[in-house]
Amino acid sequence: MTTSTPVRHPLTGCMTALCTPFRGGAVDYDALTKLVDWQIESGIDAIVAVGTTGESATLEVDEHIAVIAHTVKVARGRIPIIAGAGGNSTKEAIELTRASEGVGASGLLHVTPYYNKPTQDGLYRHFEAICSVTKLPVLLYNVPSRTAVDLLPDTVVRLAEIDNVVGIKEATGNLARATELVARVGHRIAIISGDDDTAFPLYAVGAHGVISVVSNIAPVHMAEMWDAAVAGDWAKARKLHFALRAINRALFVETNPIPVKAALALLGRCANELRPPMYPATAATVEALKKAMTAEGLL
Hints:
single chain; TIM Barrel; 10 strands; 8-stranded parallel beta sheet; two-stranded antiparallel ribbon; alpha/beta
């Protein structure tokens, strides 16, 4: 393992892909307020509002912007709030970008356009168009398992030349791919793990943080793992990585964010409610979560 420490870039560290709490079909803003405060008090470096874990696909546009605005308001400048502003239409993504900037977001997370499968040149043009309408820093987001399109390293290298592209959430789960990105553009943009189970391995090769699902329920543990890596305390970071493995597995036995919503409900932090076509976790998943969370001292 390398003994070098990860480098800090803008919008780096342990960042939570925050759930959007619901009650009775509507956004539960009281629960959202408490979640944001808890995350900040637990040492999280930034929050991603209305990303995949925040159920961006099923929020109405007005709700989408309202959740970002509320998260910004509650944070009060204590940490950056990164707005999930992606879409599979460039026009829609630009509109969400402008709206997110208008309500005070600190940065933007832009997923590759899903379903329509643009070419690599189409992907470049999509992100270039978005970056041209905002001064906010932009994190690219590559998650082929959900979008059916892969943002390849050569295209990332091209995009890294755009001034306000500051990083990429790399969620392929492919360690070799992420390592290649660190080697090729890690000196210019932040390479962020988009999978909790690859966070520690990627820190070890010089990545710049994680956008985490696990930190929704274990923010202190995830923040401490990043802080240990930055300090060069690899023994502590490794210990936390292995301690969180059971929780990480349990949070992904069903499609995210189904299990993490169940886990938050077990902690009493929000209702176990999702937007259809997402529905609450099975009893078996809830039992697995209870077991893992109890073993780690979360319950």
